[in-house]
Amino acid sequence: MIAATEPIRILPKSRADGGEGQFLEVSMGPQHPSTHGVFRMDVVLDGERIVKLKPVFGYLHRNHEKIAEHETYLGSMPYTDRLDYFCSLTNNWAYALAVEKLAGIQVPERAEYIRIITAELTRFQNHAALIGFLTQDMGASGTPLMYAFRERETILDLFESLTGARMMCNYMRFGGCRVDLPAGWLDHAKKFVATLPRFLDEFERLLASNEILMARTQGVGVLSKELAVNAGVTGPVLRASGVNYDVRKVDKYGIYDRFAFKIPMGEHGDTYDRYMVRLLEMRESLNILNQALKDIPEGPIVDPKTRIRGFKPKPGEAYGRIEAPKGELGFYLVSDGTSNPYRYRVRPPSLMNLTVLEQLCIGRNVADVVVILGSIDIVMGEVDR
Amino acid sequence: MDEQLKTELRKQGIVATTLQELYNWGRKNSLWPLNFGLACCAIEMIAASMARYDMARFGAEVFRPSPRQADLMIVAGTVTKKMAPQVVRLYNQMAEPKYVISMGACAISGGPFKQGYNVLKGIDRYIPVDVYIPGCPPRPEALIDALMALQKLIDHQPLTGADRPRHLRADAPSEFIVPGFGAHDLEPSQNPEVWNAPLVNISLAGTDDAGKH
Question: What 3-state class would DSSP assign to A377?
Answer without folding.
Answer: coil
